[in-house]
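User: Show me a protein chain along with its predicted structure.
Assistant: Here is one chain, sequence first, then structure tokens.
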Amino acid sequence: MNLNTMKEFRHDLYQCFRRASDALFNVMDALSSEATAHSFPELSLSPLFQRKWASLYEAFEDGLIDEDRLREVFVQFAPLPGLGQHVYLGVDTSNLYRWEAETGADRKLVPVANTPEKAHVVCPGWVISSVVLLPTQAGQGTFALDLQRVASTELVTEVAAQQLKAVVNLLTKRGLHPVILGDRWYACAPFLTRVSDAAASCLLRVKANRVFYRPAPTRQPGQRGASRKDGERFQCNDETTHGEPDAQWEGIDASDKRVEVRCWNRLHLRQARWTLVSVIQVIRHGASDRPRDPKISWFVWMGYADEPAPLASISSTYRLRYSHEHGFRLDKQVLMWDKPRLRTPAQTVRWTQIVACAHNQLVLARPLVEGIYRAWETRRSVLTLAQVRRAMPGFLTQLGTPARPPQPRGKAPGRAKGFHPKPATRHPVIRKTSKKEKKRKTATST
């Protein structure tokens, strides 16, 4: 990464903004550099935002961003490994809560994070699905590749599969081998079926009570009735159904504790019999066996072109996914992702994409700037993105901007006398109807 590459990245980002491009680009620069801003309007106080504060909201009301082109730019400038190596992709969702935004359309009930144990709290909000490039070294930070909102009529697994296919297609053209890492919510039949034809391997966590099946036995001569569709049952938390593993590995982890890995191949879910996976059990004898540090963990591996599961590196590979959560925390706590109260889902998606642009700009600028430390911060070999952000005002001034300066048009005449604006339309919260309620409504209607 050098100054010329950084300038090219910024110019290509500017070309992705199809409407209100100058204001949107000013917002991205202000968000990347104004470390003293703690609210959305305070971004207008940045010297890099050349417009009035009202242009912040107008940029997201009138703006338009080419999502396909933005994805291509992100992949083009991402810090990718060398030709022929594995590249690790994280897929996950994050919720933007809108408790009392009655004018916000298509809000649905989403779970609230960080609640007391066994407390299930929901509130209205929007769900954002993101695909990021996961770092292989500690402290490097994620790099956003694609972000989309999950509508109330869509499934998270459906949107995630569409995103991954688009990103994987771009990465394979560069001679890389993608590996998808996901939480246990993605280890389901709909997701595995949709990504089975993608040129990527998958490593997904699995619930301990998940049930798989072995291949169906061959039909015997003279057998009556239909052939069996599933073979013997395999339940993760029932050792009597396991049998002998097809492969196993034993070693030690970073804490010099014994680790056992066992693998059973050619298993499938009942809802996706044509999609074969490998089920992997990881036993860490040094774990405390608490909810966040389990002794036994289960994973699903689906290798591209029958690539075998890397048993010796399953734990270390899946651990890369935790950087995704730290990326969400940076976007919300530092880049104010969830602070603006924009009215429509489309405006929120534009703001999400601007936050991703600012996040990626900080990642690319890390080797080009000298971080600014607080008095209580420890000087490390790798700068945090918050330290990079404090050094961005002078760096961005040195780079220049492709955005055109504003053209003042004088004072607006204001509203006409007697004009009364209509109140904004109110939208109900989308609530999913359970199967029992559907049956009851059907019975009462008939």
